[in-house]
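Re: [ENG-882] Designed sequences occasionally contain unexpected residues at chain ends

Forwarding the minimal case from QA. Structure tokens:
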């Protein structure tokens, strides 16, 4: 493969210490002894300059705080390296992600939950607001929060026989505003409302029909190739003006979300800790 691993941070322990120190300063949960570089892999193709960001938390890439932090760091890396484009994907053969790790939500510690949401917000700003071109190579099932990250990208190719959507309504989770804005940036307001209030998980055919994905792929390498072909469309487009235009299109959503970070955090915490949601999590975990 032409892919090469980005140079690792020279001293990973320093980085972990810095995160921990910041967390202490902000009176947040401290997570130590985590190898963030392994939870999300960042590779760059020497030939075309595209970065591949690969979620690597088997068995199902469910998002806990550590995976979220690793994604946030990976997006910083892509930005720092001036990549020509980015493909978001997963290492697991038939699963992109199963969304939030339910164990992170069930009987959650409020402080950790707030930090989880805050890092998720950071990821949204970094991905939705990125100036480089982005594509999601959806190599398998992608319900809930993973679908959210795919929708932040400019293009999605999904393998056949997978399901995609935001299933939060089924678990009694009310859907936060940033999710609504993000889906509405891809499909119509009417379809967004229908999809989110029913918690619909779309088959690849239905997702294509409604516009949630751009292409159906035969397998993961086809999905990846389709993402590369999408990024190639910008090969001859000057990147600075392209990035500026993308940011302008997304600016209003970003300003509104930025202005309401605290309110969104409070709503998320309330939504997760509400008894209806907690009993769905308990049922999911067989408690
Ligand atoms: C600016 C701010 C931005 C705001 C952004 C807002 C984002 C909004 C998101 C909206 C709200 C979203 C909430 C969530 O994400 S809640 C999580 C919802 N996820 C699900 O309901 C998915 C559940 N999983 C499945 O349906 C199946 O796992 C799947 C079809 C995907 C795959 O099936 P498969 O048969 O291949 O695998 P298993 O089901 O056997 O799973 C293997 C083991 O993994 C465990 N598992 C699966 N999913 C989760 C999970 N989400 N959390 C924890 N654990 C999970 C599963 O129980 C199996 O475990 P065991 O082997 O021990 O049985």
């Amino acid at each position: 493969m032409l892919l090469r691993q980005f140079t690792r941070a020279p001293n990973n322990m320093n980085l972990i210490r810095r995160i921990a120190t910041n967390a202490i300063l902000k009176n947040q949960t401290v997570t130590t002894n985590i190898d963030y570089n392994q939870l999300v892999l960042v590779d760059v193709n020497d030939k075309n300059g595209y970065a591949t960001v690969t979620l690597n938390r088997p068995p199902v890439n469910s998002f806990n705080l550590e995976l979220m932090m690793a994604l946030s760091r990976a997006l910083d890396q892509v930005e720092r390296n001036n990549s020509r484009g980015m493909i978001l994907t997963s290492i697991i053969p038939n699963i992109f992600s199963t969304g939030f790790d339910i164990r992170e939500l069930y009987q959650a510690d409020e402080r950790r939950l707030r930090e989880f949401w805050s890092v998720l917000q950071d990821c949204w700003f970094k991905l939705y607001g990125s100036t480089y071109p982005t594509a999601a190579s959806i190599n398998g099932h992608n319900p809930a929060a993973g679908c959210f990250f795919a929708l932040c990208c400019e293009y999605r190719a999904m393998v056949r026989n997978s399901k995609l959507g935001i299933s939060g309504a089924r678990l009694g989770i009310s859907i936060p505003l940033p999710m609504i804005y993000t889906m509405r940036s891809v499909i119509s307001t009417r379809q967004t409302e229908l999809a989110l209030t029913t918690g619909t998980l779309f088959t690849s055919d239905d997702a294509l029909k409604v516009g949630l994905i751009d292409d159906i792929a035969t397998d993961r390498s086809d999905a990846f190739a389709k993402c590369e072909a999408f990024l190639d469309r910008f090969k001859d487009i000057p990147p600075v003006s392209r990035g500026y235009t993308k940011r302008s299109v997304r600016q209003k959503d970003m300003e509104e979300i930025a202005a309401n970070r605290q309110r969104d955090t409070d709503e998320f915490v309330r939504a997760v800790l509400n008894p209806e949601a907690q009993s769905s999590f308990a049922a999911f975990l067989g408690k």
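QA comment: On inspection the terminal residues look reasonable. Residues 59-60, 62, 95, 98-103, 120-121, 124, 141, 143-145, 148, 166-168, 171, 173, 175-176, 178-179, 257 surround L4XM7KOE (CB under 6 Å). Proposing we downgrade this to a documentation issue.
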